[in-house]
Amino acid sequence: MIKKLFIFLLILTAFATLNSCSERHEGPLEKAGEAIDNTLDNVKDGDSVFHKKGTFEKAGEGVDDATESNRRR
């Protein structure tokens, strides 16, 4: 019984380790690229260059994009 529990915990630990190692960590270049993309989107939308979009604004744009792509079909 204890041997089965030990094997189960060992396998569980292995999966947890692999999962934590496979997480995607953004580097400084990717963060800079996203900042540039956000700035360009702001300029296209007519907003200030320094305007940061909130969570709800991003979600609303995602819904708008999804409905536009459905209409194109």
Secondary-structure topology with pairs:
Blueprint lengths: L1 H20 L6 H18 L9 H18 L1
Give your account of this protein's structure.
There is one protein chain. The protein is mostly helical. The protein has a domain at 28-73. It contains three helices and no strands. The longest helix has 20 residues, at 2-21. The N and C termini lie far apart (58 Å). The model has no long low-confidence stretch (mean pLDDT 83).
Q: What percent of residues are in strands?
A: under 5%
Helix segment count?
A: 3
How far do the termini sit from each other?
58 Å
SSE sequence, one letter per element:
HHH
Give average pLDDT, whole number: 83
Oligomer: single chain
Based on secondary structure, the structural category is mainly alpha
Instruction: Tell me the Rg in angstroms.
Output: 22 Å
Main sheet characteristics: none
